[in-house]
Amino acid sequence: MRLLLLSCCAPCSCAVIESLAEQKKDFTVLFYNPNIAPEAEYQKRLAENKRVCQQFGVPFVDLPYEPEAWKNCTQGLENEPERGRRCAACFELRLRRAMRYAQENHFDVVSSVLGVSRYKDLDQVNAVADKVSADVGVPYDKTNWRKGGLQERRAQLIKELALYQQTYCGCAPSLKKN
Ligand code: SF4
Questions:
Q1: How far apart are CA 157 and CA 137, in angstroms?
Q2: Cα-to-centroid distance, 166 and ligand 1 (Å)
Q3: Best exposed site among 21, 127, 146, 152 by fewest CB in 10 Å?
């Protein structure tokens, strides 16, 4: 089974990547995050995620930065709270692109770490993923990547690898709240 793992950032994905690599799973990490602003922040998170993949010898793919695509799909939702409708639209954009990439590149299944942070609603991520999966026709693996000691390992790895830790989710509206 070839797995495509959509990642939002190094802190949320590091323990999952380490665990899958140790299990010798056939997987690739995909970075598609047009939600991140400003671009300097995007570049910082991209470089850190790439560094984690290099550390564990895992293939890493980054798709072009498309902030306009994110703005278009979340227009009018700027004042939504985190976990609200803007986040659902944001998840959908990223998961749809990931599933299209998986289809075009012969992956069997997609998963993501979009629900790993405790600030995120995992049920919301899974509901959006189910919808996109049914539309595109690519299976989505709903493993709860917070469990099995991964949260604890995540905290350790952040320290061990001295990972950059952002102080906001990613988009301009989430930045203003901090
Ligand atoms: S808060 Fe995070 S998940 Fe929600 S819209 Fe902004 S970047 Fe996307």
A1: 35
A2: 13
A3: 152
5: Cβ contacts below 8 Å, ≥ 6 apart:
13, 16, 17, 20, 27, 28, 29, 30, 110, 111, 112, 113
| DSSP letter assigned to residue 170 | S
pLDDT digits over 125-176, tens only?
999 999 999 999 999 999 999 999 999 999 999 999 999 999 999 999 998 7
State the total domains in the chain. Answer: 1
Three-state secondary structure call for residue 153: helix
Helix axes 150-160, 10-22, angle to 10 degrees: 110
What is the average per-residue pLDDT within 31-43?
Answer: 98
Instruction: Please tell me the distance from the alpha carbon of residue 59 to that of residue 50, in angstroms, as a whole number.
Output: 9
Domain CATH for 36? 3.40.50.620
- Which atom of ligand 1 approaches the CA of 89 most closely? 5
Query: Which residues form the pocket of ligand 1, taking CB atoms under 6 Å from any ligand atom?
Result: 35, 82, 86-87, 90, 169-171, 174
CA distances from 150 to 46, 91, 101 (A): 21, 22, 27
- Ligand 1 centre distance from Cα of residue 82 (Å): 7
| Structural domain for 31, as ranges | 3-176
**Residue keyed to tokens 């799973």:** 25
Q: Find the 128 Cα to ligand 1 centroid distance in Å.
A: 14
